Amino acid sequence: MSGGRGKRAHHRVRTATLVVVAFVVLLAAGAGWLWLRLNGNISTFDADGLSKNRPGAGAAGQNVLVIGSDSRSGSNKELGGGEGDVGRSDTAFLLHVYRDREHAVAVSIPRDTLVDIPPCRLPDGSWTSGRTRAMFNSAFSVGESAKGNPACTQNTVEKLTGLRVDHTVVVDFEGFSAMTSAVGGVQVCVPKDVYQGDLNPHRGSRGRLLFAKGQQNVSGQKALDYVRVRHGIGDGSDIGRIQRQQAFVAGMVKKVREQGFNPATLLPLADAATKSLTVDPGLGSADKLLSFAMSLKDIGLHDIKFITVPWRYEGDRVDIVQPDADALWASLKADRTIDGKDAGGKRQAGPAAPASSAAPGPVSGEGVSVSVANGTRVSGLAARAAAELEKHGYTVGDTGNAEVRDAGITVIEFGPGRAAEARTLARLFPGAYVHGVAANGITVTVGRDFAAAGGGTLAVPEPSAPAPSAANPGTLSAEVAATARSADDDPCANLSYG
């Protein structure tokens, strides 16, 4: 077995080397113009719109938010139909690449999900007020510009998950169509004949046949129509469409892998992709995009998973199901796969160990003042946390309710010079999210994890990572994990059409 692993490892190294050599040869042969062209294709969005109160950078994997924009501006109108130049997002998923760089999971967030949208920056530089229980896809339309508001969607995802989004990528109609053509199409499965009227129910007639029932290869406009169609299949729900979109993306990943790292294939794909992408400044050049893409080369198809955030219907909208969703975010934060395995890889030793692995012993809060807020709708939770903190010697100042009361995980915020005190305090709240802010002092916003533990006695954890529990939700329920799709699954298997 060890010999086989050694051969596979050697093959991966050799493959990576060939990719780098291919690009070097192209550049040396006078193709530097192509590199400049790729750089010139890429658009970036203004990072000034990102929240000033973001989750702290993670020590584990990376999180990439992928948004599909259905703006009808420019040539997108010919592909997507419809009217209006305002950018809208009908597709979004958060891709978590685990630290071992051998696993990844894409979590779809339904467009109709009711979420809290934090203050967002408008095109004129002013900021909106936060909104509660708003549709998720409305965040992208804040400011009503043709290119949308990816920073607002990123802020919303960070608020929803408690995870820091390392990169955001927006893909439009035209780019998606071109990318599917560049790879020669993708195999999809259609459960019944689909007509133009199914794609656009407002046309008033059935129209011509778009897809005949069965498995087929689609690219360009047909690929775009496939991932957009919702009506006429199943109950016409967005959830059913998400499942088909996940199968499509899985098929596209599989197709690219099967073709190998062939410049004849990759360069047209890179050209199509960079023309269509709007990215954060951290991915705003061809070499940055290539570097990120190369970091994913060792992830096997079976270890690329697709899942939808745990959900239920709330009238004609979608609500997130707790505690399952919080367990999902906690598992990503802890670099645990959806089946509970540790995919964090080897950790680098450093001067500051994570709060969950702090040395055991009594915690003394003598001389430290803390404010406590209730981030849930459980009555009296802040007062209970305050009483427990006082038992450990802390001076508790303000207590009350947080502005938004839907926190799944306890959050500890600390001001300048208070990092060490915050880490010590975090030992009393296993699994808490700790990050620095501009404001002075230390604030604890207790979440549903504290409520699930009974809001009772705070205890110092052992040095080893605590086992998953209601208070430290690191593993998904079997029911949620069973819904996952792998990139190597049969394109016709495990699809529910609404």
Structural class: alpha/beta
For the biggest β-sheet, the strand order reads 1-12-7-2-3-4-13-21
**Residue share in helix:** 25-40%
Distance from N terminus to C terminus (CA atoms, Å) equals 44 Å
Number of strands: 21
Rounded average pLDDT: 78
Any idea of the CATH topology of the largest domain?
Aminopeptidase
Query: Helix count, per DSSP?
Result: 14
Give the count of structural domains: 3
If classified by CATH, what would the architecture of the largest domain be? 3-Layer(aba) Sandwich
Overall shape: globular
| CATH class designation of the largest domain | Alpha Beta
Can you tell me about this structure?
With 498 residues, the chain is of the alpha/beta class. The chain folds into 3 domains: 41 residues; 299 residues, Aminopeptidase, CATH 3.40.630.190; 98 residues, 2-Layer Sandwich (Alpha-Beta Plaits), CATH 3.30.70. The chain is 33% helix and 19% strand. It is built from 14 helices and 21 strands. An 8-stranded mixed sheet has the order 1-12-7-2-3-4-13-21, sandwiched between helices. Helix 11 links the parallel strand 16 and strand 17. The protein is globular. Belongs to the LytR/CpsA/Psr (LCP) family. Pfam families: LytR_C, LytR_cpsA_psr. Keywords: Membrane, Transmembrane, Transmembrane helix. It comes from Streptosporangium nondiastaticum. This is Transcriptional regulator.
